[in-house]
Amino acid sequence: MTAAMRAMGNDVELISPSHPGTLPGIRTTAHLRDRFALPASVTLTTLPNPFSDRRGAGIYLHLAALYAASQKPTLVYTRNPRIAYTAAMLGIKVVYECHGVDRGIRADRAARRLAQHRNLVAVVYISDRLRILNGSLQVPSDKEIVEHDAVDWDRFRVARSQAEARQQLAFARDRFLVVHAGHLYQGRGAELILKVARTLPSALFVFVGGRRDDVQSARRSAAGLSNVVLVGHQSLDRVPWFLSAADVLIMPYSRDAVTVDGRTRTIEYASPMKMFEYMAAGRAIVASRFPGISEVLRNGENALLVEPDSSDELIRAIELLKDEPLARSLGDRARQDVRHYTWEGRSRRILEAIAPRLKAG
Question: At what angle do helices 105-115 and 81-89 cross, to 10 degrees?
């Protein structure tokens, strides 16, 4: 988002906490830039974060808001309601981008107060389902914006042929290839995929990504399955090659899906970024039918949607996609549809929507 807003000609400064265990100054900044592929045109400022646990969270949040106020910005854009509310109290126009429901007591109190504050410009929700679930905040309807997450289109602008991708990765051209990209922890579907792999021995199942411990655990579970390959973490520039090599891209989230913290359940309203990368790759997609996902993927039009935790439905969907015309049609439509879901387009729509309120202020 910061890169997209900067590309539109805005002056953008990204504020981040420094992290215990990392070196201060330029090396910390360089690490963060590399991790988030942040261009040099965006100013990156790291602020002290003295504690690794929640004791220090309040210190950083207030410090971030105070620092932002000292820069006299036109707008503070944040995903943290406590930063947003403090900045609003300091007289700054704010946009709060909401990614969840279970914020915790202090953050929820700040979000409720923010909803009625005159300096709130907008609340941006990552799905309409999330907007509905946050109805108790009582945000004025004219300040509600729904914008799903998006894709870095530049990484997928040049369409890669399946043959080219398979040659690049040394996969057989004639093997039916099912690819899963992303984390492998609880609820991401790894166990279900391995169950399906046992039923479909003629297909090759490739897992891309995952933390080291999760990859090792999945390898143990896949022992004896010759049609399963786990390639582990891959660099950003290599992931599109794996997606393009696939016949089918799968994201069979479970009802038990949680975020990386291991406890937060978001799948009902999630807008997974890998969904948009799948779409950009132009390959047939099979995904679990959850409300947030169903706002973007439409069964039989740009994907096949299956009931969560159902190996039978996942198997049937994969088998259906051996029909090449159907798979091609779904993949082509997904790639066409994802042009709406780019970071540049998302940023432009949000900024255009809030521009009248900023001018009025």
Answer: 50
> What pLDDT, in 10s, does the model give residues 53-76?
556 667 888 899 999 999 999 999
Q: Examine the pLDDT at 23 and tell me if it is beyond 70.
A: no
Q: Higher-confidence residue: 249 or 25? A: 249
**Residues 286/341, Cβ–Cβ less than 8 Å:** no
Candidates 68, 109, 112; CA nearest to 87 is 68
As a whole number of angstroms, the distance between CA 158 and CA 164 comes to 12
335 φ/ψ angles, rounded to the nearest 5 degrees: -65, -35
Q: What are phi and psi of 282, to 5 degrees?
A: 75, 30
- The position carrying tokens 């969840």 is 100
Collapsed DSSP state (helix, strand, coil) of residue 206 = strand
Residues of the chain with CATH 3.40.50.2000: 2-150+342-360, 153-340
- Asked if residue 292 lies in contact with residue 268, where contact means CB atoms within 8 angstroms, the answer is yes
Q: What is the DSSP letter of 340?
A: G
Residue 312: other Cβ atoms inside 10 A:
11
Residue 56 DSSP symbol: G
Partner residues linked to 94 by β-bridges: 76, 120
How far is the C-alpha of 277 from the C-alpha of 170, rounded, in Å?
Answer: 22
Tokens for 33, please give them.
Answer: 């830039």
State pLDDT tens for residues 95-118.
999 999 988 899 999 999 999 999
Which residues, in sequence order, are CB contacts of 258 under 8 Å at separation 6+? 185, 186, 187, 264, 265, 266
> Exposure of 54 by Cβ count < 10 A (0-12 exposed, 13-18 middle, 19+ buried)?
exposed
CATH of domain 153-340: 3.40.50.2000
CATH superfamily of 2-150+342-360: Glycogen Phosphorylase B; (3.40.50.2000)
Distance of CA 8 to the CA centre of its chain: 22
Q: Residues for the chain: how many in total?
A: 361
Name the phi and psi angles at 40, rounded to 5: -65, -20
Q: Where does residue 257 rank: exposed (0-12), middle (13-18), buried (19+ CB within 10 A)?
A: buried
CA distance 125 to 96: 9
How many CB atoms within 10 Å of residue 259?
Answer: 17
